[in-house]
Structure formats: C-alpha cells, structure tokens
Amino acid sequence: MEDFWAFALWALRIWLYLVISLIMIPAMFGFSLGISETYMTILVKTLEWATLKIQKGYADEQLEASASNGLIQREDGSMEKELEELRRSRPKPPVGGDFTLSDCFYFTRRGIESIVEDEVTQRFTSEELVSWNLLTRSHKDFQYISLKLTLVYSLGIFVRYCILAPLRITLACIGLTWLVIGTSAVGLLPNWRMKFWLSELVHVMCYRICARGLSATIHYHNRENKPQKGGICVANHTSPIDVVILCNDGCYAMVGQVHGGLMGVLQRAMVRSCPHVWFERAEMRDRHLVTKRLQDHVNDKTKLPILIFPEGTCVNNTSVMMFKKGSFEIGATIYPVAIKYDPKFGDAFWNSSKYSMVSYLLRMMTSWALVCNVWYLPAMHQQEGEDAVHFASRVKSAIAHQGGLVDLQWDGGLKRAKVKESFKEEQQKQYSSMVVGEDSSSNSD
Amino acid sequence: MGSRASTLLREEEIEEIKKETGFSHSQITRLYSRFTSLDKGENGTLSREDFQRIPELAINPLGDRIINAFFPEGEDQVNFRGFMRTLAHFRPIEDNEKSKNAAVSEPLNSRTNKLLFAFRLYDLDRDDKISRDELLQVLRMMVGVNISDEQLGSIADRTIQEADTNGDNSISFNEFIKASFVVRGNCMT
C-alpha cells in the first residue's frame, strides 16, 4: 500500500513537471514547442476524413437537407413591393383607401416564415453544423455510419475525457491561481511604471495559460490596428472566453458588474494591480455614473483601453445584434474587433439560460479545441452630426462584415425580454400609409 | 435537450405526418427540432406564449390571428401533429404534384385550403362569415391607430359591398374566393 501511494505521488509529480515544462513555461513567454500545432494538424485531418465518410453514408440526404428553404414558400422583399405584387392587376380605387382582402397574405406569409425560422431566437441556440464533428453535443447525435468512424469516435472520447480534460483542468487551475496570487502581489507594489509593466506581464501570462487550457488556436489579423490606450475596444460577444482570447494579445481594462463567488475573487484580485472598472449592481442602473466613470478612465491616457461587449448578451457567433449605445456616447476612439470561432472544433457559444458557467467551461475543455480568428479593425470615430445610435450601428456593421456574421438590428435583450410594442406600431404605420397614402395618415388621429 | 428530443419522434409518427402533410422525412425532423426549441415548457406542446416569444411574429400586426390558426377551438395547446398540419398549408407545391390527380384527396396546401386559411383569419367567431364588424376588427389590427374610425369604416363598407353578392352584408367563403381572386389567381400558389 505504501508503495502504491509513493508511486501515485511520484506519477503526479512527473505529470505536474511535464505540464509545467512543456506547456506552462512556453505559454507564459508566448512561444510554442509545436505540440498543439501537431495536435491541430491531426485533428483537422481526422475531421476532414470523417466528413468525407459521413457524406458518403448520407449522399442522398445531404441533398435534401440543403433544401431546407423548400419547407415553406419564401420571398424576400419590402412590404411595399410585395403588396404591390399582390394587388398588381387591381385598379386603385379612387376613394376610400386602398385595401384588398388578400393583403393579409403578406402578413401571413411573414408570420409563418418566422415560425419556421426566425432571426432572433435561433441566435440564442447552438449554431448548426454542415457535417457532424464527432461530438455528440452538436445538433446531430451519434449515428452509426461505419465501424471505422465509430472507432475514431470512441478514440476521440478517450482522448478528450481522459487525456485532454485533466490536462486542461490542471492548466486552468494553475492559470487562475497564478492570476490571483500574481495580481495581488503586484498590487502591493507602489505605483511606479514598473508596476504597470509587471501587471501587464502577469495578466498576459495567466491568460496565455488559460488559453492553453482550452487548446485555443488564435489567429490575429491586422495587428497594426490594435487598440491603444485611452480608447474603447468593442467586440462581438459569444462567451466569457472572448476575454481570454483578446487578452492573449494585450491587456484591457474590463468593465462589468461585481460578481460573487469565484468570479468575485478574481475580480478583486485583478483590480488591485490594474484599474478595471467594476460596478456594484445598484450603480449599474445609474447611467450618468457609468458614463462618468468610463469617461474618466478614457481621459487618463496612461490607463489601458477599455474592453466592452456592447451586445450585452452572448450570441451564437453567427450574427451581430444591436449594439447598446452607452459606450458610443463617451466620445472616445472606438477600436472595433471581430471575433469568429470555428464551430467545427467545438461550440464556443455560452447558452447561459441552459448551462452554468462551470458546466460550460467543462464542455469547452472536453471539446476538440478552440479555433478562432480575431480581426482588429481600423479605429472609428463618431462623425459630425451622427448620434450614438447610428455610430453604434455603423461600428456593428463593420464588425459583422469583417467577421462574416449576419448584421441584425434586433436587440440581444430579446433573449429574456419581450419585444417592444413600438416595433409592431411601426409595421402598422407602414401598412396604413399604403392603405390611405402618406398625406392622409398624418391628419388622422 | 434538442438532440435527445429529436429521437423521441417515432418512425411511425413520421410516416403518418408524411402522409398527412406531404413534408419529407428530413423536413419533418427539421421542423421537429424547431418545435422542441420553441417548446420552453418542454411538455411536447406549444402554447400561445411559446409562439409570442418569436419577436418577428410578435411584431406582426396579424401575429395573434396567425397564432390562433394553430389552435383548435377552445384549446390552448398544440402538439407536433397539429403544428405540422397548419404549416402544411404553406408547403410549396412541387412540380411532380401538379400532375397528380388532385381529386383523390385534397392536399392541405391546395389553393382552396390556403384561401380557407386566409378566410379564417378574418372570421373571428368561426361562423363561416366575415361580418362588417369582424372585418373592422382585423383592419384595426393591421393599421393600428393610424387611420380614423370613419375612414376605416368606409374601407370596410366598400370591401363588403364589392364582395357581397347575395346581399346579406357579410362575406361568405365562396364570395371571399371570388372577391380576392377573380383578378389574380396565383397569389399563394
């Protein structure tokens, strides 16, 4: 028995040494031994092979699935255009307004379309994949296709749960502990230039270790546009991991609400070494206070750029939703950043109404890997005469365009709240103006 | 759990729905996963609230009427069969179906059935007649507060006058067909 424990301890020690020397040390200083690259190459090859196999097995069904648009009839056009089409051969009556019984078809078709497929609710569920990626959690369940594929799938389970998961959990624990200890220690130093430098070093190191803990392969594009001090970095939001991804390449000041639990410990430690902007829950409601504190931060040119996710909620990385105007009212330089994950290797979207933070992280750590592209876009400024809402939507379009995401006008808050009545009124107004004409709608009640 | 639920749909059930609605196997499973993702109560049926949670439907002026079309009279839950039956009205007519003998049993997406669907949007009390009052109420839903009562009243009067052939001051289904599609027959086909 003694021997067994001695052996276990020895094995554990070797394991830790290996982790530290082969992964942590390289990660801390930002170079790589090529292990993760080799893993990625094997992974990409395996998935390509699996895709081919699956497609062979389902040659006919693939064709059908791609025709999902054939579910119901669809047309894309404005209300004016479509109603005109519906009324094409009807003469416009001279008095009494232009209404026909068939006008309801336009609304019906639109309604049925949204029941079959809509732009909003689908953004809050996992993205659908073209082909199964050998993870049972994606929308396609395990299917028996061939013996070879099943073997690869089982091997995948073994590798992901028995080798990668323990490794990644160890790394994440080390990374987070290091963050707490490191930032607290740096926080004790006096406010010299040395402190900022050390603080940045500690932050970046921890995030790099955490990124290894997710097997993150991140491609940064156009680094010459990296956010500068005294600016605000805005990005599309998929999950809390976005922060780790962005901070791998430089430090940001975080803005957010004070949390309890594990997050709270991290937040308190981090704020000691570098000025993040945390708000109490009650303070968040006070818009003036929030704006004021952000403004103060931005005006102090020695402070790190602020990182904000103006969508205010996690979206499944297929689209960008409405940007809340708050961060665009401050008048600072905006540095847009587009983040796009590759869904093939694992779904990065945090469905917060379905999974807790910890179970989400465990899912991430048992996925194949995290592959993502980050594009730094050129800095943007508010134009003269442009209000915050338009500026926000201009920045959003730029991000959507760069990341290959769908640019949506909808508010991400719809994940939990109901749609405002005013949107319906807008539709009614538009239709009314078609029925009675623009001029007469203005003088009615 | 979306993926687990999709396996709950039995093969026989799919076959029956296929026969009834004309949707293909993969279309049915696809719509089933949509159905389960809308089903927040996770009880295998949808309520009116489940539909209203779709923002694009909630802002549709006739959204409530469309939602209502999914629910048989007096019921406030719809199961997957019923959901599919209503959706089938809007399934596109495929080329190979047009040549088939339609007289055997009329498919849900036939022109008449589509028109019946539209007719029922106006027929609030389900008495197979659109009265002036019903027409006014639906018109009000479509235009909101933007048109005066007076003006809307005259629109309703004119519409009924044009469509009403037997002088009972309301529109029957037959009159509805003639009125809206004398001039333009292929609105929904």
Account of the protein in words:
The complex is a heterodimer of chains A (445) and B (189). Chain A has 445 residues and is of the alpha/beta class. Chain A has a domain at 147-414: 3-Layer(aba) Sandwich (Glycerol-3-phosphate (1)-acyltransferase). Helix content of chain A is 51%, strand content 9%. Chain A has 15 helices and nine strands. Chain A has helices spanning 2-28, 35-57, 59-66, 79-86, 104-116, 147-188, 193-213, 241-247, 261-273, 281-285, 287-299, 357-365, 388-403, 421-436, 438-442; strands spanning 216-221, 231-235, 253-257, 277-279, 306-308, 319-320, 333-341, 370-376, 406-407. In chain A, helix 6 packs across helix 9 (261-273). Chain B is globular, with a radius of gyration of 19 Å. Chain B has 189 residues and is mainly alpha-helical. Chain B has two domains: 11-91, Recoverin, domain 1 (Orthogonal Bundle); 110-188, Orthogonal Bundle (Recoverin, domain 1), CATH 1.10.238.10. In chain B, helix 10 (132-143) packs across helix 11 (149-163). Chain B has a two-stranded antiparallel sheet with strand order 1-2. In chain B, strands 3-4 form a two-stranded antiparallel sheet.
